[in-house]
Every structure is written in C-alpha cells, then in structure tokens.
TrEMBL record:
The lineage of its organism: unclassified sequences, metagenomes, ecological metagenomes. It is a multi-pass membrane protein. This is Polysaccharide biosynthesis protein C-terminal domain-containing protein. It is found in: Cell membrane. Coiled coil: none annotated.
C-alpha cells in the first residue's frame, strides 16, 4: 500500500514538476533570444534578490509546516494539526510585510548596488508575496496529502504563466516580465485557498481530539524546527540565488545573463531531486509519527539507488554536450559551457544526497542537514569573495561547487552514521 501511495504521488508530482522546471527554462530562452543577455541578467538579478528573501520565509513556515502537518496526521491529532495549519497561513503575512517594508526603505541602495531598475519596486514587492505563498501552499498540499489537487493547480497556473511570458516577449515589453510571474503565482494562490477551504472538513475528519493538548509545546516544536530548517535549508537553497547577486554586484548584467542560462539548465537537472524531496519528506514524517521506521529505511534505499543511476546518466550526457545545449539560448551563450561543466559535479552530489538528507530532515536528526546548509553558504560566499574579482564567472562556478562539495559531503557522512544507528534500533 505504501509503495502504491508513493508511486501515485510521484506520478502527480512528476507531472507538476515538469511544468515547474520548464517555466524558468522557457523564460530564460525567450528572454535571451528576444531581449539579449543584458536584459536577461537584469531581470534575473532582480528575481534572485526577491528569492533570497522568500527562501527564508518559505523554509521557516512551509518546510516546517509540511513536516508537522504530515506528522500530526500520522498521529491523528486534531488540535495540534489545526494550530499548525492556521499558523502557516497567518505567519507569513506578518513576516513578508516586514521584509517588504524594509526593502522599500532601502530601495535606493538596492537600485544602486545591484543594478536593479527603479521601476521594479512594485513588481518585486508583489512577487515576494505571491511567490512565498505559492511555495507555502505547495508544501501544505503535500502535508495534508492533497497531491492531485496540487498537481492540477500547478499545471493550470504554469500554463497561464507561460502564456503570459510568451505574450510579453511577443509584444516586446521587458518591463512586464516580472509581472508575468506575479500573475501565475497569484492564480495558484487563489486556487489553493479555494481547494483547501473545500477539502478542510475531509482533511480533519479522521483526526481525534487530544486530551493533553498544549499550544505552547506544539508551537515551540514547530518554531524550533522552522528556525533550524530556515538557517540550514534556506542557506543551501539560497546559494544559487546569492551566486546571481554576486554576479550582479561584481560583474556586468551581460555576465549575469550568461550565468542565468547555466542556472536554467541546472534547474532542469534538479527536477528529480525536487520530486523526491516533495514526496519523501511528508511520507517519512508521517511514517516517523506512526512509528513505522522499517518502512522509512526500505524506501530510503530504493530512492537512493534510483537517483544515483539516473544522476550518472543525465550529468554525463550534459557534460559531453554542454556547448550544444547552451546554444539553445543563442549562439553566444555556448561560451558558458566551461561554467556549466564546472558546476555539474556539484549538481551530481546534490542529486544523490536527497534521500539521505530528507531522512535526516524528517526524523529527529534535522540539525545535521541544516548545519550542512550553513557550511554550503559560508564556503561559497568566502570562495566568491576571493575568486570572483580575479576569475569572473569561473570564480562563481568554483564557489558554487566548493560549497556544495563540502556542505553536502558533511550531510551525507552524518546521514550514513545516523542511518546505521537508526537501523540497529529497528
């Protein structure tokens, strides 16, 4: 039954993530071919600035919420589930309002230092709100096991988003490119609210009231996990966004455009890891809450070897044909092949580590993947500060790989150690 459930959720997730992966890919191709490297770089630096802010909010509320919604469903605990459910909805509004106010206050500095267009303020504020809730609702759907609803919502919203991007490029209106994303994410948000409202009674129906329920205890656990994942996972995930900001800060918009094409390829490569993470994290959390540790170990082994084989094939193909693949953005983009080849080993390491890191995050060992995430950030930033002024984009790629190799290497080692301890007890 477990394997069938995972397989069904994997199919829905795979269909949805096909669109998730292709949206930035299509966006970068269209903008690169129609508007050129400079416009592509300018837009992606602005989006990366937004994503650096949103990644902390979405990991604090979304990732933690995903875990605890699934875990309390596994325990069939009604009141803790409801508390977490509504905290996820209300908390981000407060935090995002504060972050956007801070961005508005420092807008002149942001425009000056990161070459962001002055007229991007309103689109970026809107993007931060709707992108954050897009990610949070996406994770909530997995936490409450409404994966089919998520998949349909994702596909519909992404089709509208792709159509909006195509229309803006066809009409040659580069100042509306960010608004295209805002449109897609806002539609996803509205549909998500309606879907959760419609299914709320069915979600909480199987849960039972708790006699010894303590609000403070539940929130402490939730916020503790949220802070840990925010510090670690956001640091790890945000490394790619920060690399774009370093490019915009030290180099030119044209360099940022070339680097954007490389990251667009990387985003496609991360399709499988995202699929595995979104399916395994709530499933591991639910099994952990229900005390089914043997099922966790069995599922982890299957998913690791599956990813290892697929990662070898995909990354090997990409390494060999890097120039031809990048030329789809335009002939001048093939010069980024060296950058892509430098980054590929880091992508491979990240891909194969996902089941092990997810095992740590979904159980009582959550501190270790987040320490690794902080290591990734520190190593990457230090490397960029030293290498980028001297080696340009090669320094950006070197910092990206150095951070991932050391940080994720630590995560893998800790996962193996804890898995042995976990296996010996069960």
């Amino acid at each position: 039954v477990l394997n069938k459930h995972l397989f069904k959720n994997s199919l829905y997730t795979g269909a949805a993530l096909c669109f998730v992966g292709f949206v930035p890919f299509i966006f970068n191709i269209l903008v690169a071919r129609i508007f050129g490297k400079e416009t592509l770089g300018t837009i992606n630096v602005a989006l990366s600035f937004c994503l650096v802010l949103t990644v902390f909010v979405t990991n604090f509320f979304g990732t933690s919420g995903n875990k605890f919604l699934a875990e309390y469903r596994g325990r069939q605990s009604l009141e803790p589930f409801k508390l977490i459910f509504f905290t996820i909805l209300i908390g981000p509004v407060v935090v995002l309002t504060f972050l956007n106010a801070a961005m508005v206050w420092h807008w002149d500095y942001i425009v000056l230092r990161f070459s962001v267009q002055p007229n991007f303020l309103v689109p970026m504020v809107s993007y931060i709100y709707f992108r954050s809730f897009y990610i949070i609702f996406r994770r909530m759907f997995y936490g409450v096991d409404l994966v089919p609803f998520y998949a349909i919502n994702e596909i519909v919203s992404d089709i509208i988003l792709i159509a909006a991007i195509g229309t803006v490029c066809w009409l040659r209106l580069p100042h509306l490119l960010i608004q295209s994303y805002v449109l897609g994410y806002s539609i996803f948000t509205v549909i998500s609210i309606l879907a959760l409202y419609k299914n709320y009674a069915a979600i909480v129906g199987p849960l039972h009231p708790q006699e010894n329920y303590q609000t403070k205890s539940v929130l402490i656990d939730y916020f503790k996990y949220g802070f840990i994942t925010m510090a670690g996972t956001a640091s790890s995930t945000g490394t790619g966004y920060l690399s774009m900001l370093f490019t915009g800060y030290f180099l030119t918009s044209t360099d940022a455009g070339l680097y954007s094409s490389v990251l667009a390829i990387v985003s496609i490569l991360m399709f499988l890891p995202r699929l595995v993470t979104q399916v395994l994290l709530p499933e591991f959390s639910k099994l952990f809450g229900a005390g089914e540790e043997n099922s966790i170990i069995r599922t982890l082994k299957y998913s690791f070897w599956f990813l290892f084989i697929i990662a070898m094939i995909i990354n090997g193909f990409l390494f060999v044909f890097a120039e031809k693949i990048l030329s789809i953005f335009g002939n001048s983009f093939s010069s980024g092949s060296l950058i892509l080849r430098i980054i590929i080993p880091g992508v491979f390491i990240r891909m194969i580590s996902v089941p092990l890191v997810t095992f740590l995050s979904a159980t009582k060992y959550v501190i270790y993947p987040n320490i690794g995430g902080i290591i990734i950030l520190i190593v990457s930033v230090v490397t960029w500060s030293i290498a980028v002024p001297a080696y340009d984009l090669t320094g950006i790629a070197a910092g990206y790989v150095a951070g991932i190799s050391i940080g994720i290497g630590y995560q893998i080692v800790m996962a193996v150690i804890k898995l042995r301890s976990f296996s010996s007890k069960h």
